[in-house]
Design brief:
Layout: H1 9-20, H2 33-56, H3 73-88, H4 97-104, E1 127-128, E2 131-132, H5 134-141, H6 147-166, H7 171-187, E3 190-192, H8 193-202, H9 213-221, E4 222-226, E5 229-236, E6 259-266, E7 269-273, H10 275-299, E8 304-308, H11 310-313, E9 317-323, E10 326-335, H12 341-347, E11 358-363, H13 365-368, H14 373-381, E12 388-392, H15 393-408
Parallel strand pairs: 10-11, 11-12
Antiparallel strand pairs: 1-2, 3-7, 4-7, 5-6, 8-9, 9-10
Helix pairs in contact: 1-3, 2-3, 2-5, 6-7, 6-9, 6-10, 7-10, 10-15, 12-14
This protein binds zinc ion.
InterPro entries: pPIWI_RE_REase
Protein name: REase associating with pPIWI RE domain-containing protein
Pfam families: pPIWI_RE_REase (PF18154)
Length: 410
């Protein structure tokens, strides 16, 4: 099948795209045209959802009068692009917004036109009922207009940095604190009052209002649940996320844990992670934590030195291979747990500082095992970050072990 080339309407649409305001560092190629359309639609859907939430909360929307009654700009731009795509393919385009909403509920593979998306992505849809799918969330997050996600992720990050900085005597200590707090979010979907008290003792510095900044960080990342006395919470025995009653298994993507009881002695209640904290810090951090734990075991032999989230999270893991006191080689790894390999490739960039000799993009097993995922991601990275090797978490750890043995000549 010969696919039609993108038309000159793309110039107009790319202008619309930049007006929407995309995240920095994104670069598009001609063949990414359909990804742009998908991202516009997803960004539009996210805006529609956010607008609805704000109206439900009693807030009036203050758009310009020309915008009144119309759906958001990215949605309309996505629809226009799609209209041209349908026409050039000799198909009848969706006639109105409702028809396009309907289409968004179907996997792309069932659309009347064949979008140029990767094999793994073509089976995804944008809506599941009225909810955004994980693919749509990922696509919308590439746009700076995903208001709710941006706000909460930035707030948690800002408060975390404040705790790390205010409680540190030098830059090295800022980095140590950063890693400790980052790990706290991965290891603790739930915190007891006693844990928060201990943390406040460890990070005692107060902000302008006299309140320890640690407590502000906890308030940003967690929700306090009132539950006096002894409480029993159903959680996953592996990832620690709260589990839903009557549901087998954990519910977290890629986790094979089972429900277990967590018992907490409380005075007033306990803290559970905000939905956004779980989505942006906890769940994607699980693979980072697994790899770091396995490398920590290996590093006890003295053949490697491991740095967590070097350069305040330039990437996730930096491994130095040692021969005696000499550093022979340095590897960097960034672990990513995302639904769409196409979108991951589009948005991926490597921060060069601190430097390393080899670069790896590490995938959790449940993504690496998905048919076509690695091939699609590797293809999407070509010309963008071609020197980055895509590997599974197991393959990465095995490569580190093998290289460490080579370097020490065992
Ligand atoms: Zn789990």
């Amino acid at each position: 099948m010969i696919l039609p080339e993108p038309k000159d309407t793309d110039v107009v649409q790319l202008a619309a795209l930049s007006a929407v305001g995309w995240a920095e560092g994104l670069s598009f190629r001609q063949e990414d045209g359909d990804y742009i359309t998908v991202m516009l639609l997803a960004a539009g859907l996210a805006r529609i959802r956010d607008d609805r939430r704000r109206m439900d909360a009693g807030e009036y929307l203050t758009r310009t009068s020309a915008d009144q009654g119309l759906l958001p700009v990215p949605w309309r731009s996505g629809m226009t692009r799609l209209w041209w795509r349908f026409r050039t393919a000799g198909e009848i385009p969706p006639q109105n917004d409702l028809k396009l909403f309907e289409l968004c509920r179907k996997p792309f593979s069932e659309w009347p036109i064949r979008l140029r998306l990767s094999v793994a992505d073509i089976e995804q849809s944008l809506l599941d009922g009225d909810e955004l799918t994980p693919m749509a969330e990922q696509a919308a997050r590439l746009s700076v207009r995903d208001v709710e996600a941006e706000l909460i992720e930035n707030l948690v990050f800002r408060e975390l940095m404040l705790v790390a900085e205010l409680n540190a005597r030098d830059e090295a200590e800022v980095q140590t604190h950063y890693c400790e707090l980052r790990r706290l979010l991965i290891d603790n979907p739930i915190l007891s009052e006693a844990q928060v008290r201990r943390l406040t003792g460890r990070f005692p510095k107060c902000g302008g209002n006299g309140q320890p900044v640690l407590q502000r960080f906890i308030q940003a990342a967690y929700v306090h649940r009132a539950a006096p006395g002894r409480v029993k919470i159903a959680v996953c025995d592996r990832c620690g996320n709260p589990t839903q009653q009557g549901v087998d298994g954990c519910g977290t993507v890629g986790c094979s844990g089972h429900p277990a009881d967590l018992v907490i002695e409380s005075v007033g209640g306990y803290y559970v992670q905000h939905r956004a904290t779980r989505r942006f810090f906890h769940d994607p951090g699980l693979v980072e934590a697994r790899v770091l734990d396995r490398l920590a075991e290996i590093s006890t032999e003295g053949t490697i030195r491991v740095e967590e989230w070097p350069g305040l999270d330039a990437y996730d893991i930096r491994v130095s291979f040692l021969s005696g006191l000499d550093v022979i080689e340095v590897w960097g790894a960034d672990a990513k747990d995302q639904v769409s390999p196409g979108l991951l490739g589009l948005g991926f960039s490597w921060r060069p500082d601190p430097p390393c000799d080899r670069r790896f993009l590490v995938l959790p097993k449940h993504r690496a095992d998905q048919p076509g995922y690695v091939a699609d991601l590797t293809a999407e990275l070509q010309g963008r970050a071609s020197d980055v090797s895509v590997v599974s978490e197991d393959a990465f750890v095995a490569s580190v072990v093998a290289r460490a043995e080579e370097v020490t000549g065992r």
